[in-house]
Amino acid sequence: MDERFQRLRVARTEKGFDTAAAAAEAFGWNRNTYASNENGNAPFSYRKAKEYAAAFGVRPEWLYDASGAMRPGAGPGLVKVIGMVGANPEGVILYATGQEADDLAPIPPGGTENAVAVQVSGHSMRGLADDGALIYFENQHFPPTPDMLGHVVVVETDTDEVLVKRLLRGSEPGRFDLESLAGPTRHDARLRWAAHITAIIPPYQARRIIIRG
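Above: the chain sequence. Below: its structure as C-alpha cells.
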C-alpha cells in the first residue's frame, strides 16, 4: 500500500463499508470528492486525512504518509483521553482543546474500542460534569440523528469547534440550535458530526482511573 488512496480504500473496507458511496453517505461527505480521493484522481490533504482517519478508526499519520501503525495503540481495554473540555474566559462557550498527551482511561461500561474521553476543566458544566470529570463518547463522526435532539451531546461545527451542548432543532433543515449549560444558546449552527455521551465519570473516580502518559 504505497499510495495514500490505497490506504484510504483499505481503511474504508475494514470499517465495514463495501463501497465508497456507502461511506460517503454515512459520514455526510460529498460522494464525488470522496470517490476521487479514494481512486487517486484527487490527492487529499493532511487535514482531510485526519477527518477520514477519525471516521475509519485509523491513525491519520498512517493514512497520510504510511507513518507508524495503522491503528491507535491505546492497549487492551483502554481508550485515549483526547483533550480538555471547559469554557472560555467569559464562561459562554464550551469547547474542547486537542492534546497530544498519552493519557488513557478504561473503556466505560457499554463502550467500545472506538470510545474516547475528554476531561472537564473548570466549573462551567456544573450540574452535568464537575471539574476533573471524564466525559466519554464514541469517536464515530456521523451526522446528527433525531434521537439526539433534546440531549447533551458532543458536536463539531463547520468552524472547527468541538462543543458539549444540548442539541435542538434549528430554524431550517440542516441547522441546529446549541444550548449551553452556561451562557446563551447558539442558533442555526451547521454541524459536521454529533455523538451521544456514553458515560460521565465523577472527578474522584476519574483521578483514580486515568493513566497519565
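The domain at 78-209 is CATH 2.10.109.10 (Umud Fragment, subunit A).
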